Amino acid sequence: DSGVTQTPKHLITATGQRVTLRCSPRSGDLSVYWYQQSLDQGLQFLIQYYNGEERAKGNILERFSAQQFPDLHSELNLSSLELGDSALYFCASSHTGAATYGYTFGSGTRLTVV
Amino acid sequence: GQQVMQIPQYQHVQEGEDFTTYCNSSTTLSNIQWYKQRPGGHPVFLIQLVKSGEVKKQKRLTFQFGEAKKNSSLHITATQTTDVGTYFCAGEGGSYIPTFGRGTSLIVHP
Q: Helix %, strand %, coil % for chain B, to 5?
């Protein structure tokens, strides 16, 4: 157990639907990062939140949004889902605003869009 | 933008053989991190290299950071079946967000 909790572990949904992925960072970590992992694109950085504020944005689609709540858990919202959104979505956390000592990843949410 | 290339994409070895994966960045890095992802698992942080020419060892794993801080390598001596997985490098430039390479999948045949 890495200390980063992601739910749900698996999600199957239809095209056009909306889903919410949840992440609780490791105790004491202030930063949450969201990554998408697909076979053809590898690990792609989506977005980072630090202590409730958006800190950095990567290749995140406009259909996707995220937020970090006062208790530091984060949610990634994916809407108008397409088949190509099927992937593993990882959340990672770090103590500071930078991954100076590496990320701690959660076990991921496997999203399948049918 | 910053690009991190990692080769090879796959490597098959017999148990006991050595293994090396290479990582090259298009820009100078402030640091480079290495992660291991077991099949069906999540990436696990292995190590971070910061200094030019730095070499660090973890048991049978040797990590190197190039003198120009644009390349790195991970070498595993005498592979074991427990080494199976995908090894990722992640290079951090000026944005504090590491860019991940595509990874090298190591397959060890007993």
A: 5, 55, 40
> What does the DSSP 8-state code read for residue B25?
E
In A, which residues are within 8 Å of B40 by CB distance? Answer: none
The pLDDT tens digits of the residues spanning B87-105 come to 999 998 877 788 999 999 9
* Residue A112 token pair: 């399948």
Burial letters for B34-48: b for 16+ Cβ neighbours within 10 Å, e otherwise? bbbbeeeebbbbbeb
pLDDT at A101 over 90: no
pLDDT in tens, B29-72: 999 999 999 999 999 999 999 999 999 999 999 999 999 999 99
Shortest distance, CA A97 to any CA of chain B (angstroms): 8
